[in-house]
Design brief:
Length: 636
């Protein structure tokens, strides 16, 4: 029996040693990372010299968050990969947990020592109070000898001196203990951030046919990584086009540091379903509407959610004076959904149900966050210290040699346009176009630690031809706003993202570059300019009220004056509007100046003006409204 047991143990030992002998740890390093807008693909390269036989290859120290179904192992050489599995490794995590326990015990020791010093200080404070309260040594009728008085004074002086020194020592020791405690707390915080330091091991069973060096390429996906586009938009001066710098904000917490890797940024999302949609039969049934809800005056109705998982939010963005802020940015926080308010500050935004907050911003104003409530929202922004006080605009052209020249043509073909061939400068990135995605390849090796911090990488610079134009709606806002219009922006292969606006080196504010809802011409708002003065004045001599039979006729005429205080010509679009009748009893006629372009549907009037330096121009808008005299119509 003893001999049999010995034989079994020997066989087990032989098998164990054989298994250990055929298990090979394969060290590898991250060579390339492709970051998606959600997630990243890691690529590792390594090589190993192996003899013929079967092996279990262990690729260790990998991210604990890698997705099993994404693992790909490729090998070059006389090798057959039989199987690939993944297992979790908790050794590093246990080491960190042990360090946490050690630091927590050290923290408790510091706290107890600080408490002991506090107790000693309390005793010294009480003794001081006792000495100071006992100034009267004997009763009022008693007399003291000089020697007794001297002894008492010496005792109090010596004791107080000793007491003050001891208290000073206590405070010094406590300060050192508190510094040590603070250091321990910082170490604990850092350790807790690394608490989940479990790693993944990928085990590959392989068979080697011939001895030699085998090259391996291991790739897999991790979730805890992302990148998003960011831009610097600069108007340097009147002789240059709009300078657009595209950057990437990259962050990851995958558990693996990316040290000096080849970095690619993809516009794709590996989490999205790549299957084409399948259309199901559309059954048509009778519809039975629910009873209509009652609307109470003064209370806005709330739009109910729909089965698309989207919430529609609308509203108006204004300043503290109640005037609309045109072209304000409205974004869903934590979502790619966003839009830009129109010139009247009005917006409509479809948000996914998961988005509970919207972020509203405008150049020259502090951004604000509000709850994403369905229905109509009134949003007021407060001015920031930065304001566009000086913007240089001129009509520029570029000849074939690349030199700038001024071209004073007529309005129809004229615009304040800074032009140059749209070309990237200072290229650090290759751009690869694929059928469904775009990949930006950073040429220099790049590092991104696994610390959830945001790191910026330069992608590309563009000199973009832009048409600079002012916009004003003095009925709503007495300021002119500078805009830049970019055509053929699709050729730049941009992605929606936050944009920082600069003019002549001064920071104007942040905006959102919304490309999902952009037209063929991309319009950028560069903020208000106090160098353009506007005034809308009621012309009383042409504004009358008349009664004729059962009807009343009210006439209004306004004059809009625009002055260019700049040292160069500017183009400006001025808008106003006629009222729109909602009843057959209300008749509206256009009177006076009819030079503006009228939109028959909206009754908006547009004037396109070119102003020379230090010159002004005036346009008029007038209308008469006829309605029953027993009715009230508000025109003012």
């Amino acid at each position: 029996m003893t001999r049999l047991l010995t034989t079994v143990l020997c066989l087990c030992a032989v098998n164990f040693l054989a298994a250990q002998k055929n298990t090979v740890n394969i060290p590898s390093r991250i060579n390339k990372v492709t970051v998606f807008q959600k997630g990243a693909q890691i690529e590792r390269l390594t090589s190993q010299t192996l003899q013929p036989g079967k092996y279990t290859l262990v690729f260790n120290g990998l991210s604990s968050q890698l997705e099993d179904q994404s693992i790909q192992l490729k090998a070059e050489g006389k090798i057959t990969v039989l199987s690939v599995t993944r297992q979790q490794n908790f050794i590093k995590q246990q080491q960190v947990n042990d360090q946490i326990k050690e630091q927590e015990q050290q923290q408790q020791d510091w706290i107890e020592k600080i408490a002991a010093e506090d107790n000693l200080k309390t005793v010294l404070d009480q003794e001081e109070q006792l000495l100071l309260k006992n100034q009267q040594i004997k009763g009022e009728q008693a007399t003291l000898k000089a020697t007794e008085l001297k002894e008492a004074a010496d005792f109090q002086r010596n004791r107080l001196t000793t007491l003050y020194k001891e208290r000073s020592d206590v405070l010094a020791r406590k300060a050192r203990l508190q510094a040590s405690l603070q250091k321990t707390v910082q170490q604990l915080t850092a350790l807790h951030q690394k608490k989940d330091l479990s790693t993944s091991d990928i085990l590959a069973t392989v068979e080697i046919k011939e001895a030699g060096a085998i090259k391996f390429k291991l790739s897999y996906l991790v979730k805890e990584a992302y990148w998003q586009a960011a831009y610097d938009i600069r108007v340097a001066n009147i002789t240059q086009p709009l300078a657009l710098q595209m950057k990437a904000i990259i962050s990851q917490h995958s558990g693996e540091d990316w040290q000096e890797v080849k970095l690619s940024l993809s516009s794709g999302n590996p989490q999205q379903n790549g299957e084409k949609p399948v259309m199901s039969p559309w059954p048509l049934r009778f519809y039975y509407p629910e009873p209509a809800s009652i609307r109470i005056r003064g209370i806005s109705s709330i739009a109910s959610g729909n089965n698309t998982g989207m919430t529609t939010i609308s509203g108006v963005v204004t300043g503290p004076d109640g005037l609309p802020l045109g072209f304000a940015s409205v974004m869903g926080k934590g979502s790619s959904a966003g839009t830009t308010a129109d010139e009247r500050g009005l917006f409509t935004l479809n948000l996914p149900a998961s988005a509970s907050t919207i972020v509203v911003s405008s150049v020259g104003y502090n951004s604000t966050e509000i709850a994403a409530k369905p229905g109509f929202n009134r949003i007021m922004l407060q001015p920031s210290s930065a304001e566009l006080s000086e913007v240089v605009v001129t009509a520029l052209g570029i000849n074939r040699s690349g030199d700038y020249s001024y071209e004073p043509d007529d309005w129809r073909g004229k615009s304040n346009r800074a032009t140059r061939k749209q070309a990237p400068t200072g290229i650090l990135t290759n751009v690869n176009y694929q059928p469904t995605t775009t990949v930006f390849e950073i040429q220099e090796p790049f590092s991104v630690p696994s610390d959830s911090q945001q790191y910026r990488a330069h992608i590309q610079d563009f000199d973009v031809p832009a048409v600079y134009e002012y916009y004003a709606a003095p009925k709503l806002d007495p300021y002119a706003y500078l805009t830049a219009k970019v055509s053929n922006w699709q050729e730049l292969n941009l992605i929606s993202g936050e944009a920082s606006l600069f003019f002549e080196g001064s920071f104007l504010g942040n905006s959102w570059l919304d490309l999902n809802n952009a037209d063929d011409t991309l319009q950028l708002s560069l903020g208000r300019d106090n160098g353009i003065q506007l005034k809308r004045t009621l012309l009383k001599e042409f504004s009358t009220k008349k009664l004729l039979g059962s009807n009343r006729t009210d006439t209004r005429q306004y004059e809009i004056t625009v002055r260019n205080n700049k040292q160069y010509p500017v183009n400006i679009v001025v808008e106003d509007q006629f009222p729109v009748s909602t009843s057959k009893d209300i008749e509206i006629d256009r009177v006076g100046d009819k030079s503006g372009k009228l939109d028959e549907e909206t009754q908006q009037v547009t004037w396109q003006l070119q102003l020379e330096p230090l010159k002004d121009a005036a346009v008029r808008i007038g209308y008469s409204v006829k309605y029953p005299k027993n009715k009230v119509v508000r025109l003012d």
